[in-house]
Amino acid sequence: MTAQWRGILKKIDNYRWEIPTGYKAGMSVPGLIFASEDMLGKIWEDQAFEQVANVAFLPGIVGYSLAMPDIHYGYGFAIGGVAGTRLENGVVSPGGVGFDINCGVRLLRTNLTEEEVRPKIKQLVAELYSAIPSGVGSTGKLRVTEKELDEVMVKGSRWAVEKGFGDAEDIIVTEESGCMKGADPDKVSKKAKQRGIPQLGTLGSGNHFLEIAVVKEIYNRDAARVMGINEVGQVLVWVHTGSRGFGHQVCTDYLALLGQAVKKYGISLPDRQLACAPVQSTEGKDYLAAMAGAANYAWTNRQCITHWTREAFMKVLGKSRKELGLEQIYDVAHNIAKIEQHTVNGKKSTLCIHRKGATRAFPANHPDIPPIYRDIGQPVLIPGDMGRCSYVALGTETAMKETFGSTCHGAGRVQSRSAAKRSLRGADVVQALADRGITVKASSMGSLAEEASEAYKDVSSVVDVTHKAGISLKVIKSVPIGVIKG
Amino acid sequence: MKREFEILNHTADVGIIAHGSNLNEAFANAAKGMFSLITELDDVEESEYRDTELTAPDQESLLVEWLNELIYLFDVENMLFKRFDITQLSNTHLKARSYGHKVDSSKHKLKMGIKAVTYHMLKIEKSDGCRVQVLFDI
C-alpha cells in the first residue's frame, strides 16, 4: 500500500510530523504527531489524523493539536491526544478527557525480589483477585452513603486515608495530591451518584488491571534510586483503573448539556462528540467542577485498592508492612483536563490542558511535583499490555516547551476487541502467558482474549519515540509475573 | 429478511447497526444488540420490565440518551434487558417498556462492560426500511 499520509504530513524530524492547517478548512492551529515513520501507516488507516485535525477546530486552541505515539482512534479526540485552550476565549471539551475521567495509573515498590515472590505467585494473585472486586458490573466492599460520596468527590484520596485506607505519604506522591480543587457535588447528577455508590473500590473491566511486576532493566540508576528502585528483579505493583460508572455518567451528562451549549455559543464543530463550552461559561465551569469530583473519586478508588493490595501481600507473604516496603512511587491521571500555566510564544499563559490518554510529564523543579522528585522530574507511569512490559519515565523541559508537559500513556490498541477475540481464545492466552511465567486471573475469558498482547502496539516502540523525542526519559522497564483483570 | 442487528468493529470499541421496518423497531433492535454484547440474551428471562420516557433535542440524541438510560439501569439496578417495546417515538420524545431480568451470576455470563453510548459515527437512516448505527465506549 502506498503511504497516503506522505502528501499530507510535513516531516519535522524523525519523531515529529506536522498536519498543516491547510489539511482541513477550519483548523485554527496545525496538528503535531509524535511518532516514528513506521507507525504512521497504521495511524492513517485508523483515521486518527482526522481526529487530530478536528481538535484543531476547538475555539481558543493554542500551539498544536498534539498526538502522542500511542495515538489511536477515540471518540471526538483521539486517544493519545493533548490540547491546550486559552482561558479567556477557549473551550473545555468533555471529549478531550474521555468517559473514564481520571483513568490513571499507580505504581508501588516493594523490598521483595522475584525469587521471594515467584513461589507464592499463584496464592498472591488469588488473594488479590478476591480482595479487589473486578469485572463487568463489579460492586465494591465499600458501601458509601450519598453524603459520603459527596465527601469522596471533595476530598479525594484524603477521604480514603481518613477511613484507614493507606497513609498520608501516599497522598504526597499522587498527582494533585489526590485531590483536585474546585469539585462541586451539586454539579453531579443523581444518576452519576447512583452509579458511583456501588462501584467505589472496584477495578472494573476492559483494559483495567492490577499487575505484580519485576524490574527488568534500569536505564537511569540515580532516578530509580530516588523512586526506591534499586535492582533488577525487584518486585513492583501496577494499578490501572479510573472513576468507573461515576465518571462515565458525568461525561455522558455533560456531553448532552454541552451539545446544547455548542448551539448557544455558536460554536461550529466537525464532530458532535467534540461538544464543548467556553471554559469561563457556566456550562464549562460546571463540567470542570463535576469532572474534578469524578477525578477525586478515581483517586479514592486507587487509594482503596492500594490498601487492599498491601493487606493481600502481608497475608500471603507473612510479612509486616514495613518489611514489605510496599510504598507508593507515584500516581498519574491520564484522562483529565486541568488549568495550568504554560509559556506560549514566549508569553506565560493560563490554559485548560486536555489530556486524553496522555500523561502529565512535568520537569525537575516544577512546583507541582512532590519535593522528593523535585530534582529529577515527575515520574511518568506507562503501562504496557499484560504480556509484555511497562515503563517508568521522567518528565522533561522539552515536554514543557512542546507538549504542555505531556507524554504517552501506554501501548494503544491496534486490533479491535472482536478481532482479538476471533483470533485468540482466553484459555490459549492464559497458557501463552503461563509459558512466559505470567500468572493471570480474570473474571471473563473473553475479556482476556480482548486484552492479549497481539491487540496492542508494542509499548517499547511507543516509549522509544517519547524518549528519543525527549518528552519523557526512560528510568526503568518492568515485566509482569502476575495479573488480575476485570 | 434482514437480521435485527449486526455488530460493528472499531479499533478500541464496538458498535451496532440495527435494522427495522420502522424506526421504533430499529431503535428496539439497537438496544437488543447492545445487550447482546453484554450477555447471552438466550439466558435472560423477561420477568421484569422498566418504563422509560424521555425527551431530547433531536432523534439522534433520543437514541443515545435512551441507550444510556438502559446502561444506567444495568449499572444501578443490574437489569439485563432483551425485549423492547417502543410505544411512542417522535423527533424529540420517546416512551419505551424494556423487559428483562436482574443479573443472576449463576445464570448470566457478563461478557463486556459498556461505559457509554457515543455520538460517534451515529447514523439514523429512513430509506428502504430503517437503519441505525451507534458506537459504544467500552
Fold and architecture overview:
The complex is a heterodimer of chains A (486) and B (138). With 486 residues, chain A is an alpha+beta fold. Chain A has a single domain (104-414, 456-485), classed as Alpha-Beta Complex (tRNA-splicing ligase RtcB), CATH 3.90.1860. Helix content of chain A is 35%, strand content 25%. Chain A is built from 17 helices and 19 strands. Chain A has helices at 37-45, 48-55, 114-117, 121-131, 146-155, 157-162, 168-172, 190-199, 221-226, 244-264, 282-317, 321-324, 397-402, 417-423, 426-435, 445-450, 459-469, and strands at 10-13, 16-19, 31-34, 61-72, 79-86, 91-92, 104-113, 209-218, 234-241, 277-278, 328-333, 335-344, 347-356, 359-360, 379-382, 390-395, 406-407, 439-442, 472-485. With 138 residues, chain B is an alpha+beta fold. Chain B has a single domain (5-137), classed as Archease, Possible Chaperone, Chain: A, domain 1. Helices cover 25% and strands 39% of the residues of chain B. The longest helix of chain B is centred in the middle third of the chain and has 19 residues, at 59-77. The model of chain B has no long low-confidence stretch (mean pLDDT 94). At the A-B interface, helix 8, helix 10 and helix 14 of A face helix 2 and strand 6 of B.
Shape of chain A: globular
Tally of individual domains of chain B: 1
Q: How many DSSP helices of chain B?
A: 2
Distance between the termini of chain A: 38 Å
How confident overall, as mean pLDDT of chain A?
Answer: 94
Q: Write down the secondary-structure element order of chain B.
A: EEHEHEEEEE
**Could you name the CATH homologous superfamily of chain A?**
tRNA-splicing ligase RtcB
Entry summary:
The complex is a heterodimer of chains A (486) and B (138). With 486 residues, chain A is an alpha+beta fold.
